[in-house]
Amino acid sequence: MSPVSKTRLLQELHQAVPRQIILDSAEAMRPFECDGLSVYRKLPLLVALPEDTGQVREILKVCNHLGVPVVTRGAGTGLSGGALPIEQGLLLVLTKLNRILHIDPLNRTARVQAGVRNLAISEAVAAHGLYYAPDPSSQIACSIGGNVAENAGGVHCLKYGLTVHNVMEVSMLTIEGEELLLGGAALDSPGYDLLALANGSEGMLGVITEVLVRLLPLPETAQVVLAGFASVDAAAATVSAIIAAGIVPAGLEMMDRLSVEAVEAFNSPGYPRDAEAVLLCELDGGEAEVAEQMARVQKILEAQQATSVSVSTSEADRLRLWQGRKNAFPAVSRIRPDYYCMDGTIPRRELPRVLAQISAASQRYGLPVANVFHAGDGNLHPLILYDANQEGDLDQAEKLGAEILTMCIEAGGTVTGEHGVGMEKLDSMCEQFTAAELKQFHALKEAFDPVGLLNPGKAIPTLHRCAELGAMHVHKGKLPFPDLPRF
Amino acid sequence: MSPVSKTRLLQELHQAVPRQIILDSAEAMRPFECDGLSVYRKLPLLVALPEDTGQVREILKVCNHLGVPVVTRGAGTGLSGGALPIEQGLLLVLTKLNRILHIDPLNRTARVQAGVRNLAISEAVAAHGLYYAPDPSSQIACSIGGNVAENAGGVHCLKYGLTVHNVMEVSMLTIEGEELLLGGAALDSPGYDLLALANGSEGMLGVITEVLVRLLPLPETAQVVLAGFASVDAAAATVSAIIAAGIVPAGLEMMDRLSVEAVEAFNSPGYPRDAEAVLLCELDGGEAEVAEQMARVQKILEAQQATSVSVSTSEADRLRLWQGRKNAFPAVSRIRPDYYCMDGTIPRRELPRVLAQISAASQRYGLPVANVFHAGDGNLHPLILYDANQEGDLDQAEKLGAEILTMCIEAGGTVTGEHGVGMEKLDSMCEQFTAAELKQFHALKEAFDPVGLLNPGKAIPTLHRCAELGAMHVHKGKLPFPDLPRF
After folding, report:
1. What is the pTM of this model?
2. ipTM score
């Protein structure tokens, strides 16, 4: 099908939906030219800002009829370019679908429109002593629809799971404008698990319009401990020891020396500057439970020779201890003006080895890498620091990033923990999956979107692209050094 | 394609795999003619008992080449007829794939072949202080591959989740014999969530050959409380109150008067005979945590006017209190020789209303219904008691069963909690899903199995079948009595 003219598309849209929800000037569309991965920018043919599900359906019907690609966007905080517009396509922005439709405190659920902000849910249900657990760093801005599309995580996902574990039902419109209700209020739903499929589908299968989220009771209490270590290995061993003891912290975060230096220079949260790595371990629950577990964690810290230990003594103190971690991303900008945030995941036991590999690669490339990450679930966020104004720096940062993702795959991990594949990690997907697996992904996409109008070119690389890269598939979990001791 | 002759199939299989793994006489195949839903019986063309994944692949290649349908079977304990053979098809029995391949105590995972029994996993890892949490009643016999295919639950799934929440990676062979690795050792995996899709796919998408399961540390302690109530409503209100208090019991089970009478007659576990309903609430975790939560549960029981309360004082005592619940199914056979076990799920708040509806329908049909179920997650197991030797009794039992499932759908629930759809609930699926949703299911099946050779005719009804039943779709959650008070 040859590309449809902007005039033709505009004409049909104006007949189907109110004129003011369509933006067509470059000026009006400019704010939507990129998402959180701002190195990629593109203006779409048109931007639509529907105000209800009916308008979304009408827009999809027009696009489907004319064969116009549709890229769906929530708040645009995504970090992998999943919401990057397509020149010949429509950008469907769902931020105006921002109504909380129903709160059911007894069943502990809330039904919300896709554009509702993550944090707005917790704020709306706080009066009932409830909250929505997944808390990506962008939670003040990111939308629940985007959270589902990326299967977002956050600091608390070690204990409370990813988005997929906290969502019960999703209303999705197909490209034909048909509504599918995926999942349901019950623990399990018959038929294939389309609900899980929607989570992490990156706008490729349908347009998410409503979400029924599971709410949790606010924990009675929460306490955090900050511990410093003389080596990254000692901190990583402590992560394993805590988990092995059967403790499931609400959060278990690690930062390396470079990140600590950056946050201390930024807002002095009082982190130990002499430590090679620090751990933040938060426990939540009933008073007795938290006290018991904190005592056990402190014993483990002692046994693992932590060089410093501070336990929060009040809620204000707890928030202070989190300050450093929460500001780590902006803080590293003091070292170099730009950073490239990676998002690989590895089995916990591989932490020391992979961190050592990253450190070696960082020296080889001459680019500092600050590590700030969800240690408990092995989700690394190496921040590659560079200066976009330095010729070739970005290119080098991207190459180093790709190398880090290869390390993650070789260690039995994956190329994305919570940020999605988007535009960014298409090539790494060629390494992670076999041709048969990629073929299966494409067949599945086709079962939802036969013509391929939804977010084309994202998330799953074509076999052609992978072939051009060469036979790059790395067998999952193949360890380059199988004889190294594990711990 | 016209059906392939048994001779032709046998010939090709004998060339591909050892002769002794193929059964072809009616006598040898007889034990495989049904699964746990024994009212349906059929002999397949042939039975194959492969001993390794290579043989499974060869068998699939032959069947795919000849266009022979394949029904995969684990231990055959399924309750919905999902492993019922097809006359013109091959029955692929995976019980000989029974090796535990690798135990990783540090990452708390085990890699096992599909035919490994559920309980055998926990036994094998017990020495490391670990166990595999999902515990369907059939756990002594049922296989992990079947657990994945049915997304099995059990008493502990309220706290520890269904099979899908406890499985990290699945190796699946497509009908073409290609291997797909679904999921991975990391918390999340990029690409569409094929792992979740495999869970509950009822043998329709591929053949599961290996599973990487998540293990949990054995809880330090566990304690159970048994409480009697003067009404089903009071017991149901107590379930809601416990959950509303933010307590997540390891198990929260309910039995009605008829079930209590049956188990007391069977093995006298000491349940209160004067109660209209009893609750069993188990708490597990650290000593302090369990003590604190048990005190809170006891306060709730008091506030909800429980007529009797017994708390286990030792491990032996705890097991005694569970005796009644665990033997409820065999025990009800004393009332009538046969029972038909239903498996609907409803939102917790609907328990009193739906139980009252079931009771009214039971009287209308003149068939007793004993209720024994996972109250915490709203998963009902009404046991319809009948006598197969009474002309028309089974027919009436099936009609009553279908009515009960309709009640579940109308209450916003589903037609199956943990037993799957199989042969049994095809018609109820027509009520639960719209034509668009069923069409999507079929498209998805086709993306894996284009010719439709894997377990044809199960799990998802054809649109034709639904049309013949009439326009039966009940909008999810449409309440027939929207004005009744909820609690």
Report:
1. 0.89
2. 0.85
